[in-house]
Write a structure and sequence with these properties.
With 267 residues, the chain is an alpha/beta fold. It has one domain: 3-Layer(aba) Sandwich (Rossmann fold), CATH 3.40.50. The protein is 42% helix and 15% strand. The chain has a 7-stranded parallel β-sheet with strand order 3-2-1-4-5-6-7, sandwiched between helices. Helix 3 packs parallel to helix 4.
Length: 267
């Protein structure tokens, strides 16, 4: 069994910082040709520098727009001739007021975290299917899609209602596309992360010192995860080592979802 992605071509969204950047760099360091894509063009350019490497390209633009997504695929094919792996790691965490009718956070989260991933997955899947028509091996997997989700899809935090709904929808999208694309030999999985040192968590910890202690006491492994650990899980799902896995939500949370949030009564 091998977790190698060497020689393959990947698109990674959300690749300008945090977890998305760690995933893109992990794939590139493992011999994959990678298109780093992000909505923040300035930050992406700063991360790439003047000499990013022969197997790295970057693409900046509003990924909520269908034309931008089409241009992203075209740029990837122009640079590397094909697409074998898609990692939808672009996401945003926004607080919401669950009882305020004027709060549009739910709609914003769906527009940011769900719809671009769905549209890009559909476009990339069609590209993978077209590539497979020239393939000699009629049994091998022709492509993989990995979505970055969150344990928020299964937990209840009212202030994160919009984000939680978008993650739950992303999980269901993962399962639905996995079944729909299985006959085409495309695998679709997701990684649901807990408290991982992402850009949004760094901001939260900077503003609320007590938040770190709360995370640690609710995480059996008693630490915050690293972006590199998420990248390892994503590479596994993208590799042939996960060749018989599809429609799965792989949880990387230090055991946080194993705990009952209701404290045991004291006697």
């Amino acid at each position: 069994m091998t977790f190698s992605v060497a020689g393959k071509t990947a698109i990674v969204t959300g690749a300008a910082n945090g977890v998305g950047l760690a995933i893109a760099r992990k794939l590139a360091d493992s011999g994959c040709r990678v298109m780093f894509a992000d909505m923040d063009e300035a930050r992406l350019a700063a991360e790439m520098g003047s000499n990013p490497g022969e197997n790295i390209r970057s693409f900046g633009g509003d990924l909520r727009q269908k034309l931008t997504l089409a241009n992203l695929i075209s740029a990837t094919v122009d640079a590397f001739e094909r697409v074998d792996i898609l990692v939808n790691a672009s996401r945003q965490v926004t607080l919401s007021d669950p009882i305020c009718a004027e709060d549009d956070a739910v709609e914003a989260m769906l527009q940011q975290n769900l719809l671009p991933s769905l549209r890009l997955s559909q476009m990339v899947a069609r590209r993978m299917i077209a590539q497979a028509q020239k393939a000699e091996d009629s049994a091998a997997c022709i492509g993989t899609i990995v979505n970055l989700s969150s344990i928020a899809a299964r937990r209840t935090t009212p202030d994160l209602m919009g984000y939680s709904i978008s993650c739950a929808a992303l999980d269901q999208m993962t399962r639905s596309l996995a079944v729909a694309l299985a006959p085409r030999r495309i695998r679709v999985n997701a990684v649901a992360i807990g408290s991982v040192m992402s850009a949004s968590l760094k901001d939260a910890l900077r503003d609320h010192d007590e938040f770190r202690d709360d995370i640690l006491c609710h995480t059996p492994l008693a630490r915050i995860g690293t972006a590199a650990e998420v990248a390892e899980a994503v590479q596994f799902l993208a590799s042939d080592g996960a060749g018989f896995m599809t429609g799965q939500i792989l949880t990387v949370d230090g055991g946080r979802t194993l705990l009952d949030p209701v404290a045991s009564p004291t006697h």
